[in-house]
Amino acid sequence: xxxxxxxxxxxxxxxxxxxxxxxxxxxxxxxxxxxxxxxxxxxxxxxxxxxxxxxxxxxxxxxxxxxxxxxxxxxxxxxxxxxxxxxxxxxxxxxxxxxxxxxxxxxxxxxxxxxxxxxxxxxxxxxxxxxxxxxxxxxxxxxxxxxxxxxxxxxxxxxxxxxxxxxxxxxxxxxxxxxxxxxxxxxxxxxxxxxxxxxxxxxxxxxxxxxxxxxxxxxxxxxxxxxxxxxxxxxxxxxxxxxxxxxxxxxxxxxxxxxxxxxxxxxxxxxxxxxxxxxxxxxxxxxxxxxxxxxxxxxxxx
Length: 302
Hints:
single chain, alpha+beta, 2 domains, six-stranded mixed beta barrel
């Protein structure tokens, strides 16, 4: 019971997390099969394999009447060139503009309570310019104000706006997420493994205290201390390994139950994780780890 309480909780958490990560990875492969089309990204470096346009980008403050709004900005030399790259739809004002020209989405225009042909103030830090809303673009870049031809504005980042294959972008995002989860579970596994050393020692010591009377009787019947120590160490190591195997099975049951609930409540669902030989190695390692610890605990407690 002591070994069960010591080994089961942290191992169960680790295995459940690990199995969930495996299920998410398998499901991600299914999802990527449905991804098509293109995605628009902003990168610090140009990618020769994709169509890109040099830009400046960052945060600006828009002043319109009594409204102040902070939003993201893209500075390009030519809005039409950006339109040709990203295939955004533009509405163009016919009014003459002698100031800088900007493009804003319909959502941004609504928030500013303005329209095509109106004037706004665009500020980066303490530097402000007057601009006229010459263009209105669709939802592809609705969170961005597009500023045309003002490349000398300081305080903005240089980069590239690129049109990428949507599957490539999705693979990168999902892959990064899975790698972070995997690194976390591996770090957690290392913490668990290292924490087992003092915990297993205390568990063996506590077990020795409870078995003190039985061990004394065996010693009085002529069984040598070395034999008792060997039997005790082998027994506790075997129990630690069996408890780990039980925990592996229990973690599969927990993940399976979670997936079954998801199947009832929503569709699609995560696939069941496949059995992994590495988890059996974990059981063997814990069993082997307990052997010298149990031996030491018996020797020091003798």
